Amino acid sequence: MYSLICRSEYMEQVRRVLELHGDIIFESTEKNLVEAGRVNAQILILDIESATVAEVKRFKIQRPETRIILLAPGRVPGDEIVAALVGKGVYDIVAPTVPEEDGEFDIGKELKKVLDGKAAVYADAARWDTTIGHNAEPETKEENSKIIFQEKLIGTGYIAVTGAGRASGSTTIAVAIAQYLARHGNKVALVEMSRYPVIYRIRHLLHKNVTAYVQTEEFSAGAKNEIKNLMPNVQPGNSYIVADIGACYYQNENQDFNQSTVNWHEYLFELNRAMLPLLVVGTAQWRWLDWLPLYINQKIKVNWNIITVSKEAVKDLRTCNKIHVVPPIFDPFVTNNEIDAFMANLLSPMMPTRVKKNGWLLWM
Q1: Mean per-residue pLDDT for 125-140?
Q2: I want to staple 287 with a disulfide (CB 3.0 to 4.6 A). Which of 144, 236, 282, 309 is the partner?
């Protein structure tokens, strides 16, 4: 059962979508959240223009079990109102940014995608949360008559790592990324979603700024419940979330390669949600076969970054993906100039940048 509060220009679009999913038991084009709180609806569709943050907070107290789907057309990460609502537990956000030819946003299509999927968790909305270490007052001091602006990522950075087959090194890269970010003063959530977990064995070695969300030692290959419960348990307050997906596909042991026998990791879609999607590949010639299922099924997206220890491993593959060559001796718990340079280059889209101008020194 649904409650609906939105502007009149979107009402018909939203109504058509909801009628395909269930009954509408409350509907209003006015700012009427108090009245909606008197109705026991499972889902509230709420226009961002139809309630204040304080009103949403009171509604959440009154109806804590009601899922709120926020309609925020044209809004982008960095929006203060959306960020405030994320802080109140509103994680399902419908925010089309490109109007249709008639100048109106296609709310209905985006809303249908949200309703057809699972209820969002904090990790899904983290990129909207601008309250994580980004609202501190700038520190100003004089230094050689220069202004240095440190530009930081808005919201929580989401990095997903997968491997082209087992033992490709995705966990090593994921742990190394978490360690590097933590050493630079960031709080990091490291989420192990691999079907063959190992991080639980080494979590005592992780940096104090890294919180590991891992599977238990009793986990067996093929179990799914433990993996699906990890991401919803990630707590707010992290500057970065690093997800180790593990092998992007798997086959039964002693099974010859065949396209029809490939089982894709059920959370491979996390790479499409990530701000920095990473694919780790083996370099030995006998591991090149690992690429075949990915290319045959056109799984690799153009924005995926490929990590390998040698460009020779991918030289014969037609790809426009960015390729990163990892140092040949790579320990995620060891730091040196070579590894730091590799990490700085790999994570440059996610790390703060500094821009100098004449004047004072400002830390933003």
Answers
A1: 59
A2: 282
